[in-house]
Amino acid sequence: MTTKTESIALAFGVFDGVHRGHQRLFQALQELARRCAARSAALFFDPSPKAVLAPENAPKILCSREEKIALLRQFGVEEQICYPFDRALAALSPQEFLERQIFAKYKVAAFCVGTEWRFGRNHCGDADLLRSLAAARGLPITVVPPLWYRGAPISSTRIRAALAAGQLSEAASMLGRPYSLQGVVSPGLGLAGKELHCPTANISNPEQQLPPYGVYVAWIRLAQEKQTHPGIIYIGDAPTIRGDQSQEVLIELHLFNFSGNLYGRAVSVQPLEFLRASQKFASSEELARQIATDLEQARTILTHHHPPPAN
Asked: Is there a single domain that holds both residue 136 and residue 76?
């Protein structure tokens, strides 16, 4: 963990998804850190400013805090600073934020931000202001332009839109890796194994951006395991089982050739291919027959795919 005596080259951002644009910024950050003989550090706010200031309009997230930290490490950021965001912090001017929250706590040798970075009360601070404030202290700053893809800058907003439209390959192209969903296994209705002959594990992650409702072939990785399990995932409101009244999103996993207790375990799910849309069946028996077909199709599809490399 960074201390006040260690020099850091500091990047700011939300870094939702740690997409290719962020990765480009981290490359510039590491080069800046080398020039300044400092450690590279990325400060991200959690929860995101939008979730605090306008929760009713806050976008879904692309990755959990834990995955974000792991990805920052993967892309060479030496220090990952998860900074609590609240309304008191949002009320600070850009100058107050830097003086009270940054310079008072960290020994900053340089800054690295994107051209669209905004900070301080009402987002009134930008890269130009940061450049002038840093210059007053003799600190260098690198401002990184956005990375473009298909005629527009890569952004978390574009990736969320691609996922919502079911464009998994487009999302992966902008992320620089396949999209994955994280969660912790919790008890479910207990019907899938008994009535539908397909034991499932349920996870909940209401804050993460999901692809359209339906059944997907998937790779599933359990926390603290390098092995990836093949399986299927269902995302939807389970109208056959729960009727038309429930609005809660259900996420169910079925791992092939797996036995053991999954309750309480963290999992990461990578949807691989879309099998079919969620729908209401006339009976649980009809749903069970469809699930059997889903499993057979998924096994066939998986024979043409290699599992992702171990972390």
From this structure: yes
* 105-129 tens-digit pLDDT: 999 999 999 999 999 999 999 999 9
Average pLDDT for 74-83: 96
> What's the pLDDT tens digit per position in 184-206?
998 765 545 444 457 788 998 87
* Domain extent at residue 235: 180-302
Q: What is the CATH number of the domain that holds 19?
A: 3.40.50.620
Rg, the chain, Cα only: 22
Same domain, 23 and 67: yes
211 and 108 within one domain: no
pTM assigned to the model: 0.91
Residues 80 and 148 both lie in one domain: yes
Q: Is the pLDDT of residue 263 over 90?
A: no
Residue 206 and residue 113 in one domain: no
